[in-house]
Amino acid sequence: MSAMVSFIALVVTTNLLFGLITAAFFLRFRARLLVPTWPLALAGIGTGPFLLTIVLYYLLLLGPGIPPLVLLTVPFLFFAILAWSAGPGWQEMGRLFKGIPRLLREVSIWFLLAGSAFLLVITVVFLANKPLVDHDVLEYGVQGRIFLRDGVIGYSRFRFDAATGFHYVGLHGFAFPLLFTWEGLWSGLLGLKTDMWVRSITMWYAWLLIVFVWSVLRSLGAWVAMAGTMALTASLGFLFLATIYHLDSMRIFFFATALAAFIAVLRAPGLDRMLLFAVLCAGGSFIHSIGAILSAVLWVVLLVMLRASIRDRIRWAVPALGLMLVLGGVHYVLDVLFGTGWIFQDIIWY
Amino acid sequence: MERRALLLTWILIIIVGLMAIFYHQKWMPVSQGDLDIALFSRGIGTPLLLWLNGYLGVFLNFQYLSPVGALAIPLIVFGLFRWRHLERWQQALLVFTVMAAAVIGVFGGFNYRYALTLQPLLVVAVTASVCAFFTGKQRTFLLVALVVLAVGNTVLSMELRQRLWKANPDYSSPDTRDGSMKERLDSGPRDLEAFLDSNGVRPTDTVLVNNLPIWYYATERPGIYFWGGSDQLFLAHSKPFLFKDRTDDQAASFLMDSLHCHYIFSTREYDLYNPHYRAFLESHTQLLASDERGFTLYRLKAPSEP
User: Fold this and answer.
1) pLDDT tens track for A133-171
2) Would you tell me how many other CB atoms lie within 10 Å of the CB of residue A263?
3) Chain B residues with CB inside 8 Å of A234's CB?
């Protein structure tokens, strides 16, 4: 029962509260971004847990041995400041929610809701019956717990834990391991050892991805959105994406939102849109190396093909790339300079 | 013009549908045969499959991905021919898609998880293109065809998995495994601590762990991380080979005398990846236990033991 209390508390605070605060913060800039409201809000909701991992990352990187209580408290202070900064974004979100009854009058959205309910049932079945057993996610889980136990993130050529002999072979940013750290903090307070919330993250981001794709295609027509969403989700790979505990749904969600922002920047170049693009690229990058590599490709294509003067490109790209570096990109710089060498080492394929 | 485009679109959908049928029924092998186990398990055991599931896996890995993504290939070709008529963002998206597919294809296309990355982009692009080119009933029929294509492909994929399972007793997946929902979804060791205790492994005994992070997640016991497939030990300051440049006797004494390790924890599946490692298990270890989920526990034999 206590594991369930911890799970619900984490869903309410991290997925919903932190997600909605970030969404409101994004919506504050909607008039300047000139992007559709629902996709922007969904991107914000998904960005909440990512920003949490960034806060945890810096606390563990810059404050070695930091007490668990401080580690638990600072993210709340960060999101309180973000909530306050969101200002008019809350009214925008209020308007968005007021429009939901109108949306519910469309027949097609009931298919989306039925699909969502189906995913919820699958989630309950999996959380109740499938523990954490798959290779990669266990690696992230062990590393996340080591971060919590030691209260520090350091960089060395070999990420080896002398206490157990564990050798972390992951190449990627620490977003996913830090979700284990976060759940470990909470469950530690309750005297529990549970990972139910991190397991549910797979389904949460799969659902956000589905709704995001639906909201993008919705502008072409309600039934178009339904057909496109079905064509995407009716594959074995997507079924595994939504059910096998892993970081893939989270990274693909960020990749999809970054692509939408990429199109938005190209259609109407400007600093605001480029900053949004940078935040979403940072999310994908801090989760997985493939996100970092594809983000680099996106940036190259964007900067080459953007219809803007060289001066404007530099004026917009420098702060945007700086923001991306701050939001997790720094991990790869540190890993190359002082750590494992990232992808510039002999990679072992499993 | 629209009539020709419609005919061409239907032809392309039918071709992709036929490809999906051939892929599942003819091209994908259901047993390893003479193929390398790693290439077979990755679905790239033949030159054709290396292209379908490897280099072009982003588009054509029908076992896991929606075949609607395959329709992005003619869309890309069409975009390249009509380059000057495209808007700037469309050109950029086209360039990015080609570059991203190349990056994923070259470095990890065989891994469907990486190939899955571009699926939202490809499916949305194909769906949006249908909407851009066609209207009315034509559009509706085409959208329905895309859904039917995706669903039909999934049926073929599931049927292929059933045949794989029947041909390979070791093939294990929740959709093919017998038992209750919990037994099908939980492939981990039932109670690792009890499993080890009952086989005489003390909490302080160091164990060679063959690529099973569950060891570190479920226990506090000391382990030496190892991957039999690449013959590498993952130590504090290096990742040396275990068997390369050592005889089996030397490898055994290195494990016991230098690393103070007398046990190996692995799985039946992982034991097959490296023939040398498998031969070592047969000659220099004693199988202490093997559970119903495939986990294996070996004890290294002392040099004097037969």
Assistant:
1) 999 999 999 999 999 999 999 999 999 999 999 999 889
2) 18
3) 66, 147, 150-151, 154
List the Cα angle B46/B187/B222 in 5-degree steps. 105
Chain A closest-CA separation from residue B306 CA (Å): 31
Are A256 and A277 a contacting pair, CB within 8 Å?
no
Q: How many residues does chain B have?
A: 306
Minimal-distance CA residue of chain B relative to A304: B92
Residue B239: list chain A partners with CB under 8 A: 158, 167, 346
Beta bridge partners of B207: B223, B263
Amino acid at A143: Q
SS3 B82: coil
A216: which residues sit within 8 A by CB, 6+ positions away?
A: A36, A39, A260, B124
In this prediction the ipTM stands at 0.94
Q: Please give the structure tokens belonging to residue A175.
A: 């977003």
Contact B128, A217 (CB under 8 A): yes
pTM tops 0.90, yes or no: yes
Chain B residues with beta carbon closer than 8 angstroms to that of A213:
120, 123-124
Q: For residues B193, B197, B199 and B204, what is the CA-based torsion angle, rounded to 10 degrees?
A: 90
- Token pair in block for residue A288: 């997985």
